[in-house]
Amino acid sequence: MASRLQIEGDDSVLLRVTHSNLKNFAADVRFSLQMSVEAVKDKLWKKCGTSVNSMRLELYDDCKNKLCDLSDDSRPLGFYSPLDGFRIHVVDLDPSSVTSGGWLEDTSLVEKYTISEEDYNKRSGTFRKFKENLASQNPSAFRNKISDDYMEDLCANIKVGDRCEVEPGEKRGVVKYVGRAEALGPGFWIGVQLDEPLGKHDGMVKGTRYFQCPPLCGAMVRPDKIKVGDYPERDPFEEDEI
């Protein structure tokens, strides 16, 4: 009877979503209780890469006890009586899935194109050749004009642990580093752990570790590129809400 009342109302539930193959994947997602289990799977497929036909959903309570499998794709989510704080665990049943093997999260497993310094120097039309040509024409333009204290004043109200928004793109995250980063250039830099994998590294830049974060969630930006304040983590499923 309780499930029937949930389905008939315009209710929703906030659930934690985890994935069997993605150790770093976890998100708090709000679902409509009127959504079918198949619709829930379709929504998750667009975010985690596991196809609907290869997905099994398990429901856990807030004490980590497994309650049931969401086994009937035609039933509304509310039939299983999930509550706020419960967890849906996505089990990928496809051994050849794009999520298997860890490569979707571990960029070290992805083969990268490399070229030797000797071969690069032989190429024409490269950025290095362009810079060398400009420097030969106007040497003064390439002298270091940025002081070691560049933008230090903008760091006065920025501290590690602050929530922030990074431009361009209004990417949100948390401040993980404030200080100089010689590998990037003179002056002050802000290290940010982005909420989504929209960065370029895991906190290590050009061989120097400035902070620790998941792969592709790290960004180093100038202080004028971020705003600190009340910037809560966005719901990654909000744009697909049914």
From TrEMBL:
> CAP-Gly domain location, by residue?
180-222
Q: Which GO terms describe its biological process?
A: cytoplasmic microtubule organization; post-chaperonin tubulin folding pathway; tubulin complex assembly
Q: Which Pfam families match?
A: CAP_GLY, Ubiquitin_2
Q: Which GO terms describe its molecular function?
A: alpha-tubulin binding; microtubule plus-end binding
Looking up PROSITE patterns in the UniProt record yields: CAP_GLY_2 (PS50245)
Gene Ontology cellular component list: cytosol; microtubule plus-end; nucleus
Q: Where in the cell is it found?
A: Cytoplasm
Where is it mostly found?
cytoplasm
- Alphabetized UniProt keyword annotations: Chaperone, Cytoplasm
**Could you tell me which Gene3D superfamilies the record lists for this protein?**
CAP Gly-rich-like domain, Phosphatidylinositol 3-kinase Catalytic Subunit, Chain A, domain 1
Question: Its family?
Answer: Belongs to the TBCB family.
> PANTHER family per the record?
DYNACTIN 1-RELATED MICROTUBULE-BINDING, TUBULIN-FOLDING COFACTOR B
Q: What is this protein called?
A: CAP-Gly domain-containing protein
Provenance organism? Corchorus capsularis (Jute)
